[in-house]
Amino acid sequence: MRARAWVAVGIVLLSTAAALAQAIWNRSAVGRETVLTERETPISGGSRDDTALWLRVQFVTPTDSAWGGWLGTARLAALGADTTVEATRRRQMDSRPAFAVLELDGPAWREHASERVADHARALADDSSPTRRDSLLSLFRAGLERESRLVLVDAGPDAAALAVRYPDASRHLILPAVVRTFVEYRFHDGPRAPVDTVLGSSIQLEQHSLLVSGDAARLVRAPNRSGGYRVTLATGRSYAPWVRRVEAE
Amino acid sequence: MDRAAAQRRTDQVRAFRQELAALEQEGVFAPDPALRDRLTAHHAALLDRLARQFDVDTTPRTAQLSLGMRVAALLGAVALIAAVVLFFLRFWGSIPVAGQVALLAAAPLLLLGLMEYVIRKPGARPLAELFALVAMGAFVLELSALQSIFALRESPHGFLAWGALGLALGHGYAFRGPGFAGVALLGWWLLTMLAETTGGTWRDPARVPELAVAVGFAAFGVGMLERLRPSEVLPCYRLIGLTGAFAALLWLATSGSMNGLGLSRRTAEVLYQLLTLAASVAIITIGVRRGWRETIVAGTGAFLLLAVIKSVDWFWDWMPRYLYFLLLGLVALLVVLVLRRWRLAGRPA
Hints:
Chain A is an alpha+beta fold and 249 residues long. Chain A contains 7 helices and 10 strands.
């Protein structure tokens, strides 16, 4: 082969080596390990044309209508976002790399669940008989029991600092994420009512779906599986996550 | 000599032969038979050598067939890239991770080997370019799939690797398809890096659109370096660079609030409209002087787009529609007349 072909082959080999080195380095030490259930990691995607098995990390994001959304201006500023009114007028969208802290089945989840039950009860109070209301509320509670108990509790630019603040790895997952800020318009009633401009924010995990293969995939896919499954999620040196084990519940 | 120069020489010989035949027919010139034989033999040997060495088109028919092959190869490359990606997705669930990695790493290398083998066959350049494009597609799949398999941190450096491969194939083999892709991918990577260094993130490269203008004109500047070889790749730099730069300028000219210089919306729009106007005229002038078709097309396109956008802003609401389109037609006519004037000025007296 001529030199020009070796250059092309060299680029492919070098890039492959760099990607694999990054993976090996991340997994060379297990930083944190958290055991999740099927509620937090349901099967995602999969079709005749894509045979890979993905587990999607599901979590609850609290809502807040204040300026900056639930993340708030202090966290957004720490991530490098300009949250002033002038900057928001000039630039309506922004995105920042971050690390999200997700709490598993803790106070944040209990608060979220009780708030939702209370909201639902209020909504049912006006147009349901007490018997019907109780029945609908118990159905709603049963639905909540199938939802993910992972709740977003914090976000920041420095994963190591977050790990110090949230040392219990079995309770708190720290995952790479992207924080986006955007402008929201709130319309009031009436044609001449003013329109509020509010800075909102959202957070997404960099890798919201994790690939599972081999025995773990067979266990999750097993057609005669009676119960759920437990997923041991590990994060490495760069906080990139992977599925370490899957066990039947 | 590169392939473009060889093709130019081939076209010259063909034109010379046709002109000589016409002069003979018109009775203006009749070369000595010995001289004609020497010329014919020399040209035949030259064309044969160029065809073998550079795979040039020696007749109009072969040129047409080559064009057909290139179009078919491009469509084939798109379909084959889709086939490679879908094949992998169809079976990767049943392959262990080590097998997935081996398959992903082997695919672009095998396709590059196939390309190198095919290009040595006479008349198989378009087929080799097809394999080059599919190898690029397999390389994009490889890095993307490795990122998914190992849940690697997201990064823009994949664009650097893909762009480098595109340019290596463009410069190494004078392939325009990989060359275009290489310039675009590398330009995008450069833009993401500049976005990071100016306080933004690589996920938001449009944060300061002026950076896209700078990167675009820098790519055009590279395309102006006529010493850079092979010459087939230079239009890739010029066209992709100008497309990026003018797209960003037109965006700024119409959405001034997006400017990254802290200017007020109105000031930014006026400034970038004037800049687009000046830049498009300058680019058309350069294109006409150097004889670069893609440069003229890019400059004229930007000028006309600006004219359409501004005329809508100024006249759409208060002018009768027929008058608006008449005005637009007159602007296009003006451009045609100016270009015609330049064209005539280029003719011998």
